[in-house]
């Protein structure tokens, strides 16, 4: 790693990520913090609110192309989906289905549904899924960027798999149940959440990329995310199908993954089974080196 | 949670470039500061919601110090605090005010 000046996606706040990801000065926020649309629930739990409820929504341009944007602030209550937070994202996706921007870009950073607002948060998660599918059915690409402090877990992990593409750095952990949840429910022999190297190998974006869940792997550098996003937007828009055949094909992929790797105790065993020559070296590789591995196999 | 309000006599001509600016995040030991441009010549209202109760005097001291160092006339400052230290509060106030000007 010879980069002298790194603009880390991981370290930046959600607002700072937006500022450096899109064309300079192009972001216009909907429901800005001055409107103070804070959570109506948190005060009952003696928990402080945030003026944007941890979700920033608006529009910006990327190389002149208009996109709609949402960004989750992972450091506010774990980026969790509360009622206002989720509603802002749903509203943005509904708007996208209506006014057809070049894409919806979601900067995902969330541990899932907010505990203090569990019921409305769960409903919010399902509404995000439905509105993301509606936007995609209307021909609008919905792209997720992952690589923040919380990764993408719980309901947000499910949402991340309902999008057209995911761009992530190694920090971009994606899953449904987090490591501590798995250990609590199934035991340490299943998953040792204190073994951080194991956790990152398993849930981190390198493994998720090699398994085909993450579309594009980048370094933790906001300009690299921007370049990957710009490149992705140049490709022809996919036309999602609701026919049975593609659904069965997708289920077939999942079944094959389980057949091939279901007995693996560690991501390194998965990589070995994939035919990667030096599976122990993968955690030390750059994003470009890991990407080349996949290119060599396919 | 404790709600505090302060009315500061402030200096400056209130000519800030942006309508509002935000600094910081409501994370543990941190805070969110929003500064807005408002039509209140010679005055600055500060509204604080904080998780750490019983620190009104310290808030007053930090805000008075900020008021001496910056031109706060014609602004309103809103704070969501998750038990940040006075030095962190001071830093976030300066960051938000400088973002409003530049």
Tell me what the structure shows.
- The complex is a heterodimer of chains A (about 300) and B (about 100).
- Chain A has about 300 residues and is an alpha/beta fold.
- Helices cover about 40% and strands about 10% of the residues of chain A.
- Chain A contains eleven helices and seven strands.
- Chain A has helices at about 15-20, 85-100, 120-135, 155-160, 180-185, 195-205, 205-210, 220-235, 245-260, 265-275, 285-295, and strands at about 30, 55-60, 65-70, 105-110, 140-145, 165-170, 215.
- Chain A starts with 13 loop residues before the first helix and ends with a helix.
- The mean pLDDT of chain A is about 95.
- By secondary structure, chain B is α+β, with helices and mostly antiparallel strands.
- The radius of gyration of chain B is 12 Å and the shape is globular.
- The model of chain B has no long low-confidence stretch (mean pLDDT about 95).
- The chains are: A alpha/beta (about 300), B alpha+beta (about 100).
- The interface between A and B is medium-sized, with 17 and 18 residues.
Overall mean pLDDT of chain B stands at: 96
Helix and strand pattern of chain B: EEEEHEH
Question: Major sheet of chain B, described briefly?
Answer: 5 strands, mixed
Roughly what percent helix of chain A?
40-55%
**Overall spatial form of chain A:** globular
- Major sheet of chain A: 7 strands, mixed
Q: Helix share of residues of chain B?
A: 25-40%
Overall, the morphology of chain B is: globular
User: Taking strands numbered 1, 2, ... along the chain, how are they ordered across the largest sheet of chain A?
Assistant: 1-2-3-4-5-6-7
Largest interface: A-B, 17 and 18 residues
Write down the Rg of chain A. Answer: 19 Å
**Element order of chain A: H for helix, E for strand:** HEEEHEHEHEHHHEHHHH
Q: What amount of the residues of chain B lies in strands?
A: 25-35%
Structural class of chain B: alpha+beta
- The number of helical runs of chain B is 2
Stretches with pLDDT under 50, minimum 5 residues of chain B: none
Overall strand count of chain B: 5
Beta-strand fraction estimate of chain A: 5-15%
Stretches with pLDDT under 50, minimum 5 residues of chain A: none
State the distance separating the first and last CA atoms of chain B: 33 Å
């Amino acid at each position: 790693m010879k980069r002298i000046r790194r603009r880390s996606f991981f370290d930046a706040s959600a607002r700072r990520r937006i500022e450096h990801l899109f064309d300079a000065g192009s972001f216009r926020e909907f429901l800005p913090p001055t409107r103070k649309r804070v959570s109506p629930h948190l005060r009952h739990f003696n928990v402080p609110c945030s003026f944007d409820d941890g979700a920033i929504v608006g529009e910006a341009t990327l190389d002149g192309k208009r996109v709609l944007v949402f960004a989750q602030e992972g450091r506010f209550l774990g980026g969790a989906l509360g009622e206002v937070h989720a509603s802002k994202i749903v509203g943005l996706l509904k708007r996208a289905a209506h006014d057809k921007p070049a894409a919806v870009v979601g900067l995902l950073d969330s541990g899932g549904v907010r505990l203090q607002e569990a019921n409305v948060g769960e409903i919010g998660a399902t509404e995000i899924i439905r509105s993301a599918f509606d936007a995609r059915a209307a021909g609008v690409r919905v792209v997720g960027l992952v690589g923040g402090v919380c990764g993408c877990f719980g309901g947000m992990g499910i949402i991340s798999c309902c999008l057209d593409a995911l761009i992530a750095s190694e920090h971009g952990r994606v899953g449904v149940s987090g490591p501590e949840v798995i250990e609590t429910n199934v035991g340490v022999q299943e998953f040792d959440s204190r073994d951080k190297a194991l956790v990152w190998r398993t849930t981190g974006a390198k493994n998720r990329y090699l398994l085909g869940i993450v579309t594009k792997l980048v370094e933790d550098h906001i300009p690299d995310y921007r370049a990957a996003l710009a490149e992705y937007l140049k490709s022809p828009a996919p036309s999602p199908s609701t026919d049975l055949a593609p659904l069965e094909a997708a289920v077939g992929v999942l079944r094959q993954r389980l057949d091939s790797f279901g007995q693996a105790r560690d991501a390194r065993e998965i990589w070995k089974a994939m035919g990667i020559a030096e599976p122990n070296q993968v955690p030390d590789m750059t994003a470009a080196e890991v990407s080349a591995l996949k290119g060599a196999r396919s | 949670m404790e709600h505090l309000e302060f009315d500061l006599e402030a200096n400056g001509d209130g000519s800030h470039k942006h309508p509002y600016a935000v600094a910081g995040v409501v994370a543990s030991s941190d805070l969110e500061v929003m500064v807005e441009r408002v039509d209140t010549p010679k005055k600055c209202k500060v509204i604080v919601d904080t998780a750490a109760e019983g620190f009104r005097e310290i808030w007053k001291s930090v805000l008075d110090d900020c008021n001496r160092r910056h031109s706060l006339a014609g602004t309103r400052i809103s704070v969501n605090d998750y038990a940040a230290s006075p030095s962190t509060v001071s830093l976030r106030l300066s960051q938000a005010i400088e973002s409003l000007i530049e």
